[in-house]
Amino acid sequence: MGNLDRLVRNKDAGIALSALLLFVGFSLSSESFLSAYNLFNISRIIAFSAFVALAQAVVLVAGGMNLSVGAIGGLATIATGYGIQVLGLPGWLAGSLALAIGCTAGLLNGLIITRLKINSFVTTLATLFVFTGLVHGFSEGYAYTEIPRGFTFLGRQKFLGLSNLFWVMALVLLVTHYMFRHTVFGRRLLATGGNLEAARLSGINTDRMLLSSHILSGGLAALAAVLWVSRMGSAQPATGKDWLITSFAVAIVGGTGLAGGSISAFGLLMGAFIIVLIKNGLVLLEANVYYEQAFLGSIILLAVVVSRLRDMYDERLEEGMKNFV
Questions:
Q1: Which of 87, 61, 57 is nearest to 69 (CA)?
Q2: pTM for this structure?
Q3: Positions of E strands within 50-156
Q4: Mind listing the pLDDT tens digit for each residue in 112-157?
């Protein structure tokens, strides 16, 4: 019974078990699932999905949300393409420009939220349209296609059978785990999302934490965009349109608390693994792709319900312990 309790209360264990079951199930259902190309492709999409989700998760953990994740990604994509094709910048410099623009967009979100005291939902919903308008206005709907082959090294090459993007993502998640577990900044972000008023009374500058989370979110969204250009070999203005549901789906399935104060780097990896496996499996099984959004929405709802049931289970255990004492 003790082992069962630990399994129910351990979010990462439950997510990992779900991912393993899905992997085994699709492996048995489709002969092409375990092909070298499919595993390479899955690893590439998992990496990208994890980056997008992390851009959302760092704001969720502080008690907010960022609906403009995809729009910031679109801005960074266009900035990368424009820097390389029009300005003639080397790839690393164009990518740095894109990261700076992403951080600036996040800074704008954060300043509006902390200085004007407008909630993150309204603020980022408004900037979503602002940034999207800038993307289409600046690019006029045209893609930047003159991306040098060297820039696609991360997105199109592999190491040990897995995409280079996967290894970059693994490194970033390791840094994320260390930040939230072993640094003052990470612990303060968790405290801010866990209980804003208590964090403020304990001396934490919560406005600074919220501002920092949005700057970090914008930078991560821009990083995802740069890596996407590396994968595609072009900078498309439509990039980011479908990022919002992915960012929430992977983050929530990965155990990031909607109310803040909870995040798991391993959970994000497993969340990305689950979402990508389901999408990939549906294609291999020749399911109707027009229902994909319905599947993703159902997964998000299921994850929220499971999280709430787990919380209720914990509350009942705590109440039982109090009564026992």
A1: 57
A2: 0.85
A3: none
A4: 999 999 999 999 999 999 999 999 888 887 888 888 888 888 778 8
